[in-house]
Structures are given as C-alpha cells and as structure tokens.
Amino acid sequence: MFVQSIKCGLFRKCGVLLTHKNGTADQLAPVVLQRLLFDKTYHVSSGRLGAVKLTHNQKPDWNKAVSEAEKIVGYPTSFLSLRWLLSDEIANVALHLRKLVGSNHPLLKTAKGLLYNGRNNMQAWGLIVLLISKAAGHLNVEEMEEDKAAGVLHSQRALAEVTEMIRTSHLVHKGMVNIYPGLYPEAADLGDMTFGNKIALLSGDYLLANSCMELASLRNQDLVELMSSAVRDLAEAEFVGRRDKQNNPLPWPPGTPGYRDAEEDWTIRNVLSAGSLLGKSCQGTLKLAGHGPQLQQQGYLFGKHLALAWQACLDLEPFASHYTPDSPFNLTSAPILFHLEHDATLYKEIEKGHESVLNVDYTKVHSIVQKGPGIKRTKQLQKKHSQKAMEVLKVFDESDARTALSNIIVAMGEL
User: Distance between CA atoms of 57 and 30, rounded to whole angstroms?
Assistant: First the structure.
C-alpha cells in the first residue's frame, strides 16, 4: 500500500515536472522522500505535494552556478531521481527508516544530509562528470550513442549516475554503529541501533550492487577496472591512521611513528576518500569519449583537485562564525591538523576521543582552533587546489561547459 500510494500519488505529480529542464524535479523528489521519512504528519495517500517551501542557506552565486550548469547538460544529474525513488526497494527503505525517527542512529543524519539538496553533500558530483564530458567532446563514437540535446553520451550519463551511487553507498555504510558490550545497556536503544545497522548495511549494499550492474552494462573492461580501484580507495580510506571505537579518525600524536606533515596526512586521507572517486570518474568519462591517456590524466587531476578543494570548504564549515559546536566534528579536518602542527598541546584534549569522540570537549577544541593558524592555512589549501583545478581546465577549448566548471570553482571559494 505504501509503495502503491507513492507511485499513484506523489510521483505522478512529479512525473510532469520531469519534462522541465530547470532543476524543479530534482529539487522536489528529495523533498518528497524527506517528508516520507521525517514528517509524521504528512499523508502520502493524498496524492498532492501541497506547497513545498524550501529554505536555502547557500549563497546565491553557488545556486546560480549549479543551476546554470544543470541547464547545459540537459537536466539535473543527481541519481536521486524519479526512476530511483520509484523502486520498491527504496520505498521500503523509507518506510523502515521512519521507525528510527526519535533514535540517535547516525543513519538518520546521513539520510537527512543526502535529502536536503544543499551544498553540504555536493550532489553535483555527477554534474561535474557530465560537464567535463561536454567540455572535452567525444571522438569516434557512433551517432546513436549521443544524447543530442545535452551533447554527452548515454554511457557518460550512466557513469555520472554510477559515481553518485557509489559515493552515496559509501556514506550510508559509514552510518553504521560499532555495537560492543555495555555500549547500550537499555534494550530499546540496543534494538534501535541494531535495526539501524541492518538498514544501513542493506541499503548501502543495494546502491553499490546497482552501481556495479550499471557499470557492467557499459561493457568496457578498462572502465570497470578503473572504477573498481576507486571503490578500493574508498575502503582503504577507512583504515588510514588511528581510529576510535566507532572507527572515527583520530590524528597521530605529534612526534610518534606514523605521524606525517599535516598537509600530507590530510591529502592522503582525502584523496582516498573523495579525490580518487571524482578524479577517476572524470578520467573514465574521457575514456568513454575516445580520448587518449594524456587528456584522461588531465581529467583525473581536475576531479582530484576539485574534490580536495571541496573537502577543504567542508572542513572550514564547523569553524564558521555562525557555527555552534554542539555536536562532534571531524578531528582530522584540515584546521585541526594544521593547528596541531603549530601547537601540539591541543592533542591532550583530542586524545580523550580514543575511547569515544563524545569524550572530547568540542567547544574547547573549537575555541582553541579559532585562535590559531589552522583556519587561515585551510583557506590557503582550498585556494591552492581550486587554482590547480582551474589550470587543468585550460587544456579544454572554450565552451559553455568549461565556463560552468569555472563558475562552480569560483562560487565554491565564496562559500
């Protein structure tokens, strides 16, 4: 009944919007699922969207850059599309996720982050892949392979979708909780966490399996090998450095074996966890278009540096003036690693997180880092990788797609 009411009600309304090329359908579909998951007063059987009022914290420049870029490639690229949301499996996941509302399972935070179609989750990754595809053009490809309206290949659009599915499956899998004896003495809490883990594991596996099937359908062995290595890098990222009992990353104590220069440590972690996937996706889309190894390498470098610049932006977010440190943030983010390099005494507070990150006084860490050089150096790091991404763009001919990529990089620096 739940699935049927979705298909016959809400998404029939959304289906009309899919024909537009202004991003409307991509914005509404996540809102629909968001309401299904988190708004208990919303009745899906009514078959009406009602007035959906979106609030955005993003600066207009970012919104405009992404919106204009979406028009260039035809329509919004997020895999959170009607085709994906209409599947019975995802409708069932949404139904089960509602059982977790009120619990503190991290999967809920992950789901909300994905569904609030904002800049924090950068659902523009698929968009980046298509823009680099269009900027480079394609060689020696059959005419029937091309999406004439967008100027990209159908296989390139499929790869963009695969990229976002792989990334999202990784984020969902990271939402699992390590349950060890004594962690949840209350039976109800233990039940919630166990149930949430099952949903995170199975829904993440579902996304990853579908991405593998779509990738295999492209019948390109080199591309499969390339994207498989990106998935390997995502897994390897979870084993870099020290970890607490929930597998949250912790920095190495300064001066101990395993300790690296702050920028080197940050780069290794984030190339594996983000740069590799976007870089190899950009490389793979140029391979599909028939370009040679040299241009493919430029595609990889562009994706890698763009992902690192984006990660530096995200690392700065908890240290923005409006932020209140009422929840844990990444203890291996660039501002903290840079501050530790400047003043190792901060590590005394961070070391408390070895048992649990909740033991750390985040207000204290926030206050100390705000006064140090870490934030300034992170801004320099973000600018450095943005400039490198801009330099790579020069190898492509001038076009609307290249301009859109430039605008996205510039807007990123203003966030």
Answer: 17
Q: Which amino acid is at 402?
A: R
- The CATH code of domain 56-80+117-413 reads 1.10.600.10
Structural domain spans, the chain: 56-80+117-413
Which pLDDT does position 302 carry in this prediction? Answer: 97
CA distances from 316 to 30, 170, 309, 337, 409 (A): 26, 22, 11, 12, 16
Kindly state the tokens that stand for 162: 């695969």
Choose among 315, 292, 304: nearest CA to 388: 304
- Residue 390's Cβ-count burial label (10 Å; 0-12, 13-18, 19+) is middle
Q: Which residues of the chain have pLDDT under 50?
A: 1-60, 79-82, 117-121
Distance of CA 157 to the CA centre of its chain: 18
Amino acid 382 reads Q
- 94-153 pLDDT per residue, tens: 666 666 665 666 666 666 666 554 444 455 788 899 999 999 988 866 655 666 556 788
Angle ∠(354,359,361) on CA atoms, nearest 5? 115
Burial degree of 144 (CB within 10 A; 0-12, 13-18, 19+): exposed
Q: Which residue in 56, 74, 3 sits closest to 33, CA to CA?
A: 3
The phi-psi region of residue 137 (left if phi > 0; otherwise alpha if psi is between -120 and 50; otherwise beta) is: left
